[in-house]
Design brief:
about 15% strand; 16 helices; alpha/beta; three-stranded mixed β-sheet; Rossmann fold; about 475 residues; 12 strands
């Protein structure tokens, strides 16, 4: 009896001691992460909301820390050891996880981003590596004391090769470039070891207590949109020091819009000589049924109101900086949309103009057949410098000569590097870039900047939506 009592008392003491130790470890871990958050905040105040958006949670299964966008999980012993080794490593790990959330890597499907030479599992590995390289590239670009750390030869060489593309190195871009490198398993493992910072196990859906994924995505979307606005306005000095970060935010905050819907902004609403079976006089219908019993009188309208494309100009930048392959892709995508059912009126007035530093060709398209013939015999002219002004002057001459009667707008396909007109034209203008060749261009405020995605015929605008005020809607 006494032995049983002593054994029970001993177990309770050990259990109480274990609980006290766990609470103490959790407290120490939270204090370490809190210190890191504060150090990062004093150097990057624009990250204030993002840095404070986590619940710190101890988890002995993580190595050394990880996040699901809501919790920041940490292994107490590994976190403490890393902090004793070098507190900068913990600072970098904290910022690494924050950037994963800002760019919403957690909620994107890695398996659909391509693979390292196999199936879904290889695609997942590639996506995880691409995300880690993308955020580490941003962190290594910061010349700030809390995250400054020497870079290995492998890391420097990897950045050098990736930067040759000249594009913003977001996760999607990094994955695409890594796929082109055709890495061996050994090389892939070396990159994984070099760039692995946090544990991605919480990116998978589980039954942990956290808000729904959609709610979490919206939360981080709101955070990074406000951050982008802050960096472009109040924190310009910080944005100059963090160009890669701001570029990544701009890419992430571009939202998809259907290219077909974009072209509809250039359409007009008028009657077309065509029977409309959807509209008829119900009075005649009822009269026929009452008079003849089983024979309604139906007379559809002979005209139909349509919202279709009638007049606009397409200008192609044929300078040496725009490759013929990219130009052909743009024309093919535009052609595929325009030749779909219910895009054209029976007669249209579309001018396809080729221009570099001067206008080389103007082809007038008045029907679908003429557009098809133009595409079959398409040939490029130019390859000089880039000056946008001659095309605008030429289109204005066409308007003055009544070649256009109701010009709805101009689509200018270009790489963005050239001399823009100083004055806003009398028509709506959109400068269109192909996403794979896009670099941030200083488009005038009166024009729309759109980036065309060749895979899904989508366009993006700089602020995340098509700016309908430019189109008068």
């Amino acid at each position: 009896m006494i032995e049983r009592t002593l054994r029970g008392t001993t177990d309770k003491i050990e259990e109480r001691t274990s609980e006290q130790a766990a609470r103490r470890l959790q407290q120490i871990g939270r204090e370490i992460l809190g210190i890191c958050r504060d150090e990062l905040y004093f150097s990057m105040r624009f990250l204030d909301v993002a840095l404070s958006s986590f619940v710190y949670t101890m988890d002995a299964g993580v190595s050394p820390f990880g996040t699901d966008g809501y919790h920041m999980y940490f292994h107490p012993r590994e976190l403490g050891g890393l902090y004793r080794e070098n507190r900068i490593l913990v600072n970098r790990g904290y910022l690494h996880m924050v950037l994963h959330c800002i760019f919403r890597h957690i909620w994107k499907t890695g398996g659909n981003r391509g693979s390292a030479g196999g199936g879904a599992e290889d695609g997942k590995r590639l996506w995880n590596l691409g995300c880690d390289i993308a955020v580490e590239h941003i962190i290594d670009g910061y010349d700030l004391r809390p995250v400054r750390f020497s870079r290995s030869l492998l890391r420097r060489e990897t950045y050098r090769k990736l930067e040759l593309s000249g594009h913003v190195l977001n996760a999607e871009r990094v994955c695409s470039l890594l796929s082109e490198w055709e890495l061996t398993e050994k090389e892939f493992n070396m990159l994984e070891e070099e760039f692995r910072v946090d544990d991605h196990r919480y990116w998978e859906k589980d039954d942990r207590k956290r808000p729904p994924d959609q709610q979490m995505q919206q939360k981080w979307k709101d955070i990074d949109e406000k951050m982008e606005t802050d960096l472009e306005t109040f924190s310009k000095e910080a944005s100059e020091k963090n160009g890669d970060f701001l570029g990544g935010l701009r890419v992430e905050n571009r939202e998809h819009h259907d290219y077909r819907e974009f072209l509809r902004k250039f359409s007009v609403f008028r009657e077309e000589l065509k029977a409309d079976p959807d509209t008829f006089d119900y009075g005649f219908y009822s009269y026929g049924m009452s008079l003849y019993g089983n024979m309604p009188l139906i007379e559809p309208l002979e005209t139909r109101e349509e919202h279709r494309i009638e007049e606009f100009a397409v200008v192609i930048d044929t300078s040496m900086s725009c490759s013929g392959e990219l130009i052909r892709k743009f024309l093919e995508e535009t052609y595929s949309v325009l030749t779909e059912n219910e895009s054209f009126f029976q007669k249209v007035n579309i001018h396809i103009i080729q221009c570099d530093e001067k206008v080389h060709q103007d082809v007038k398209i008045t029907s679908e057949e003429e557009l098809e013939d133009y595409m079959e015999h398409f040939q490029l002219y130019g390859e000089g410098g880039t000056d946008f002004r001659p095309a605008f002057e030429y289109v204005e001459e066409l308007r003055q000569n009544r070649e256009f009667t109701d010009l709805k707008g101009m689509i200018y396909f270009t790489d963005g590097y050239g001399i823009y007109p100083e004055r806003m034209p009398a028509w709506r203008t959109a400068f269109v870039f192909l996403e794979e060749d896009y670099r941030d261009a200083d488009v005038p405020p009166w024009a729309i900047r759109l980036i065309l995605n060749e895979q899904d015929l989508s366009v993006y605008s700089r602020d995340g939506k098509i700016q309908e005020e430019h189109f008068g809607y």
